[in-house]
Amino acid sequence: MITKRIIPCLDVRDGRVVKGVNFQGLSDVSSPVDLADYYSRVGADELVFYDITASSDGRKLFTDILRETASKVFIPLTVGGGINSLDDFDRVLKCGADKVSVNSGAIRNPSLVKEAALRYGSQCVVISADVKRVDGVFRVFAKGGRENTGLEAVKWISDCVNNGAGEVVLNSIDTDGVKKGFDLEMLQAVCDAVNVPVIASGGAGCIDDFVKLFKTIPKVDAGLAASIFHFGEVKIPDLKRELAANGIGMRLVEEM
Fold this sequence. Notes:
Blueprint: E1 5-13, E2 16-21, E3 24-30, H1 32-42, E4 47-51, H2 54-57, H3 64-70, E5 77-80, H4 86-94, E6 99-102, H5 104-108, H6 111-120, E7 125-134, E8 137-142, E9 147-152, H7 153-162, E10 167-172, H8 184-193, E11 198-201, H9 207-216, E12 220-225, H10 227-230, H11 236-245
Parallel strand pairs: 1-4, 1-12, 4-5, 5-6, 6-7, 7-10, 10-11, 11-12
Antiparallel strand pairs: 1-2, 2-3, 7-8, 8-9
Helix pairs in contact: 1-3
């Protein structure tokens, strides 16, 4: 049985993990170093680290806090934020990342995905798409969900995969932080369009939301969440046991 992945997300601003609703109203949560250590110990399958204001601030990703965070993690680590060039890929990988997530940088420079895949391999290149419905159309947003690019999301994601992206993180701005469940319509549209792993992000509020996600869209490879894990509303070992009990393949904590 192919196992699904459970991935906590660390949205980092000024060296601290923060969380908001619909990408707005950010509040302080904890230290990324402490959270990374905790999640690595309790059975998370991977970890995502986003420097969420790097692109909107027009700066490079903070590497000091990333190095410290990576030193605590013994599971795959995906890092994004302010990734605009191959030099940025190189710098983040040397800080301990296993995969690099690119969003605004790929919008500005469509050739970046292909160049990075050729140099580092498709398995290293993750396209992170912040998507919101605008007049009934899925649109790609840049700069941490602040700027509507006008790009139709499913086509843009497909183009990135065709250029070599080996994984897709689909962030639904419409459901982010709302805790009413994942955006199944949006996820289905993307899963139908690409043949690489798709990670669902945005909307998880309880264990049943993950069960519904994997049961409804078997092609989804992983579920990503932030606040419900950070605040202990859902504990990863409990989540994985319940998913396994529902016939969904899991790497259980007891097997670590």
